[in-house]
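Hi Y.,

Following your request, here is the sequence exactly as I used it, all 215 residues.
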Amino acid sequence: MRIQWAGGGPIAGPIAEPRLGTGVTREHDPQEPAIQPVETQVTTYYLELRGLEEFKPSGRGVPDLEIREARIASPELGRFLYTAVGRAWGWTDRLSWPYSKWLAHLERPEVEVWIAYLGGTIAGYVELERQPEESVEIAYFGLLRQFMGMGIGGLLLSDTVERAFRAGARRISLDTCSLDSPRAMENYRARGFKLFHEETAPRDVPPASPDEAGW
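Below is the corresponding structure, written out as tokens. Let me know if you'd prefer a different format.
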């Protein structure tokens, strides 16, 4: 179930460079080699759910969990969710989006963003996009790493599926890939999603940063 900030005037001192996939800046060391992406064979899996009769909701309970829609289009929030969740899994396709593109995307009536909160803290999110022929695509789905393994993913996905079908969807689709957490596929399968296509192709993937270097 992946903004680029405009600055003001010139900045004195070393230039801070963006680190691909993290949204974090650091001072540039001219002696340090540039981080180069690595060509990697990546398998993408396409899954679908074609009705409530195929849906298997999560039976777990997570006290103090809330799921609420972000009804105001906010590029800052959109980028935060994207980078906070996707940093560990190689999400890079939206890192170069300028503020205006984020805003235009999030203001589209077809797009919805729902956020899971645990104890008032953001735990994860899902971005939905309505498609033609009564279909809904789960464009992005994931949790911040400290909230994994608590049952939140299953409940967030269950809430998403139930809401989409109640709104009139006849089909819900998503894709995941071999770079994503193995728990993602487990969650999708457990909710009743079925694989209908897969493909493998080379992709330039940024190398994983050491844990502390990513902050």
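The first strand starts at residue 16 and ends at 18.

Thanks again,
Q.
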